[in-house]
Amino acid sequence: MIYTITTNPAIDYILRFDKFEDGATIRASEDEKYPGGKGIMASKILHNLGEKPVNLGFVGGFIGEYIANSIRDLGLDEKFVRIKENSRINVKLKYDKETEINAKGPKISKEEVEKFFDSLKEIEKGDVIVISGSLPYSLDSDFYKKVIEKTEADFTIDIADKKLLDYLAYKPLLVKPNEEELGKIFQTEINDENLVEYARKLNELGAKNVIVSLGAKGSIFVDENHAYRAKPIEGKLVNSVGAGDSMVGGFVYGMVNKLEKIDAYKLAVACGTATAFSPDIANRDMINQILNKVEVEEIGN
Question: Where would one find the signal peptide in this protein (predicted)?
Fold first, then answer.
């Protein structure tokens, strides 16, 4: 079983403009609403690949019920803890640029946190937990560590900057920093010459598998035995939100379904790219189209 955790989910309210003018009253040409949050994004791609992940986390108020209902409408399972305060709405402005306005989110009580930890009792050894995203301000900074320690499941973790180092001793199945984050983790400038070296340092510190996303330059995959690089795939960027989460979901799907690591990496690349070329999380047909275009070469061992 695969579980995803979204501690601070949101309605992602996307507004598209033909022209945006700061300080003016303007009308959007299109608007869309999606259940958002990094764990939810990973769940959606896993569902589109054919898995049945369970969404865990916190939702509250009418906004939270909208999120939970939207997830169920997509055919996804959810076991969110209901909290007193309202979940948040994040606004994404799309014009010739992208601007994101993310709300603070609700306060979560100690009693609500305990209900969440109780919900982890069903997770078994051999299950996979996808952990990603920043924590709400009211949760302890070691919240994710407690999640890991309370289960025997494998886990992936996708959090920013040097905080990632605190989790490597727990031997995550996958970590996925981008190029900038990798540089911040080790306080150095990353380039083509040292990219594999610093990705492999994450292996040496405990990460079983590492994907470093490089934006328009593609990505690399590193484990203790191999290093691969995927070439970038040409296409129109439609929506960058969820692309990284789609990569994580694709790799987890590959591992759960016993694919060779190079094939799990190829699927991860296809999922991330297909989502970037789609208005929302990519569907299976789009993923398959992109998968046929993925080219991976070994770059070291």
Answer: none
